[in-house]
Each structure stands twice: as C-alpha cells, then as structure tokens.
Amino acid sequence: xxxxxxxxxVTIPHALRPFCDGQAQLCFAAEDVGGLFAQLACQHxxxxxxxxxxxxxxxxxxxxxxxxxxxxxxxxLDTPLIEGDLVSVLPAVSGG
Length: 96
Hints:
alpha+beta, 5-stranded mixed β-sheet
C-alpha cells in the first residue's frame, strides 16, 4: 500500500521572495521539517542558504514554526508534518 507524502505550505519572508520568483508561499511534499528543507535546497537553493547553515540547521536569526509551534519546542528538523500544516519561516526582529 502506498502512503502519500503530505503537501506542506511554507511561507517565505519578504526579503527572500526575489530568490523564488516573488512567491510568498511554496508547497513541498515532505514528512518532516528536515525533508521539507531538503526539497527547498533542491528547488530554491538561494532561499535555502539564507535559511539554513552548512549543517542544514536553521540559522540562529531564523525562526521556524509549524502552525503555531516553534520547531525548537518540538523535534527540531525531525518535527513531523501532516497534510494542511503551514510552516512559517520568520527572521528574528531586533532593534532599539
């Protein structure tokens, strides 16, 4: 029996949209956040290198949420994904 891999929507920060034809959201078939980032690396490498470091981990100034949960509070890159999940990639905001 074939199990379908869920299609996941990913929001792209405004500053990175020029690297993916201006798209605000991308869709990938992935079972976990790590798999999603692997798909991002293949299809939009210029976006991927801005989000992830050379180890494949989100850069320190990048926050990644699955729906309303930060992946650090879940299983990190192993956070499972299900159909309908929204992954949000948000750069940290600072200022004074």
